[in-house]
Amino acid sequence: MNDPLPLAVAMTLTRAMLEAAREGDWEQLVALEAERHPLVLRPVAKDEDSVRQLGELLALDRELNALVAQARDQAGEQWQAGQDRARAIAAYGG
Questions:
Q1: What is the pTM of this model?
Q2: In angstroms, rounded to a whole number, what is the distance separating the alpha carbons of residues 52 and 4?
Q3: Tens place of pLDDT per residue across the chain (94 aa)
Q4: What contacts 9, CB < 8 A, 6 or more positions away?
Q5: CB of 82 within 8 A of CB of 35?
Q6: What stretch of H or E contains 13?
Q7: What secondary structure letter does DSSP report for 30?
Q8: How far apart are CA 61 and CA 85, in angstroms?
Q9: Residue 47 to residue 39: CA distance in whole angstroms
């Protein structure tokens, strides 16, 4: 029988990761992901509660991935705007 504790800990860490992403605390998110990673690689029991928790974990992961993608896109836009400003300054002898 599989131990349900790793899945419960992974759920707690995933919720903390989601909160870190909402706050823009990317260093904390990375640290939590490193802690969570080995837990989500473990086999999961097929009982009703574990399957429900796994579904919830996947839903939280989708929300987390959306927040990370949004932040990545914003960072890319900010970087591009900085590059455009630097080119404009260089073009006008700044």
A1: 0.78
A2: 12
A3: 567 789 999 999 999 999 999 999 999 999 999 999 999 999 988 899 999 999 999 999 999 999 999 998 888 877 877 777 878 787 787 6
A4: 36, 39
A5: no
A6: helix 5-23
A7: H
A8: 36
A9: 18
